[in-house]
């Protein structure tokens, strides 16, 4: 059985296309834009805001990982998006092998002790400009 594969990428490097091809070749689910759609449902925020804010982990997210037992804390919209996105990613990874592009999935799965292969796709600037 294949593990979960996370793909981090530089803008314009082809990470989405490569991830889609890998998932197809392995016969496993591919998650990229679908994470945004599911996070919108979970959080109630619009897809455009999630696309803009959902690729970064804030220091508050790290604090939340440490102090999840606390019931009194403030969450910014970015933190709420991250937590909804985290839930979607963890649910997908727990179902079985898949390819997940971006959305801090490598960080999320590492913090949850879910084994995965983490890949970084990069390219030189000339190729990125062409893409």
Task: Tell me the layout of helices and strands.
Layout lengths: L3 E6 L5 H12 L3 E2 L1 H11 L3 H7 L5 H8 L10 H19 L3 E3 L3 H7 L4 E6 L3 H6 L1
Parallel strand pairs: 1-3, 1-4, 2-3
Describe the structure using short key phrases.
131 residues, alpha/beta, globular, 53% helix
What do you see in this structure?
The structure is a single chain. With 131 residues, this protein is an alpha/beta fold. It has seven helices and four strands. It has helices spanning 15-26, 33-43, 47-53, 59-66, 77-95, 105-111, 125-130, and strands at 4-9, 30-31, 99-101, 116-121. A four-stranded parallel sheet has the order 2-3-1-4. α2 crosses α5. The longest helix has 19 residues, at 77-95. The chain starts with a strand and ends with a helix. The model is unreliable at 60-69 (pLDDT under 50).
* Strand content bin: 5-15%
**Main pleated sheet:** 4 strands, parallel
- How many angstroms separate the termini? 33 Å
Helix share, percent:
40-55%
Précis, in short:
The chain has helices spanning 15-26, 33-43, 47-53, 59-66, 77-95, 105-111, 125-130, and strands at 4-9, 30-31, 99-101, 116-121. The protein is of the alpha/beta class and 131 residues long.
């Amino acid at each position: 059985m294949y593990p979960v594969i996370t793909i981090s990428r530089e803008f314009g490097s082809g990470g989405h296309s490569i991830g889609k091809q890998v998932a197809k070749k392995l016969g496993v689910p591919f998650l990229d834009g679908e994470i945004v759609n599911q996070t919108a449902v979970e959080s109630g925020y619009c897809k455009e805001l999630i696309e803009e804010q959902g690729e970064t982990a804030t220091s508050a997210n790290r604090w939340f990982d440490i102090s999840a037992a606390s019931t009194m804390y403030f969450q910014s919209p970015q933190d709420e998006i991250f937590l909804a996105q985290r839930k979607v990613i963890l649910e997908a990874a727990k179902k079985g092998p898949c390819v997940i592009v971006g959305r801090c999935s490598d960080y999320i799965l590492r913090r949850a002790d879910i084994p995965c292969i983490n890949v970084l796709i990069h390219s030189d600037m000339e190729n990125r400009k062409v893409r």
